Amino acid sequence: MKKSYIIIGAIGIIAILMAGFLVGTIFLGSNLYSKRVYDEGVSYDVGYGGAPKSDAYPKTASQSYTESSQLNPNDRKVVKNGNANIEVENFDSSLSKIKELAINFGGYVTNSNMWISSTDTKSGNITIKIPEKRFDEFSDSLGQIGKIKSKESSAYDVTEEYIDLQARLKNLKNQEKRYTELLDMAKDVEDVLAIEVQLGRIRGEIESYEGRIKYLDNTTSFGTFYINLYEPEKITHEWGIKDAFDKSIDAFIASIAGIIILGGFFIPIVILIGIIYLVVKYIKKRGKK
């Protein structure tokens, strides 16, 4: 009899553990530690393209600045952007090669980062500024870095906007000059205050236009290329003690979590059944009296 109780108890414990594992897996996921976090707490997939998409700038200019075909091509202002995903054999040497390539084209690096996956393969991205006139040539040369998985570029023509801003700026500076002359001639305090208000408004607009022109000068002189480098994932043919240990921890936590979840579900039901049983028993007892 005792032996049968032991067998039934063992089967019950196994059933509870299996139910807990099943529930824990459903609610918490099959692998609690599968995501390894790098690069200041952000998890990335292999081949992640951390760079902005090439459609960050419109492919064509806005409606106000589309008629620029009559301008000299050498005087055009174009914002160029590109991005590429490249698979490399060795991340470190490829990163150094890209930096050297950027210098050879008259460019420079503005940002770079790197992270390591759970299989010890390296990935990262690098942002490079390349002179606008050599941007396409630099793009064509990326094949020597590694196997290009994807590459795209975009060009945003801001020529008309640039010319329009210069014309507006010239007009505002002429207005500033006239108001300054009027200020020198004004004798009434009320006139002086009114002129100063207008001068403040004009000078604020001048600063805004000058800032925009400076920005366009900077972004059209150098194009921006975002490059993502990654080594191919290593293929392993053995399970490994560490991996097995990690998996066992995952399974253990999933089972315990599942049992807790099941307990949270069934305990209120058991309590309710117990309360109903006591009430029914109490009523029957009163009836007999």
Automatic annotation (TrEMBL):
It comes from the Archaea. Keywords: Coiled coil, Membrane, Transmembrane, Transmembrane helix. The keyword Transmembrane applies. Residues 155-192 form a coiled coil. The chain crosses the membrane at residues 7-28, 252-280. Residues 76-280 form the DUF4349 domain. Pfam families: DUF4349. This is DUF4349 domain-containing protein. It comes from Candidatus Methanofastidiosum methylothiophilum.
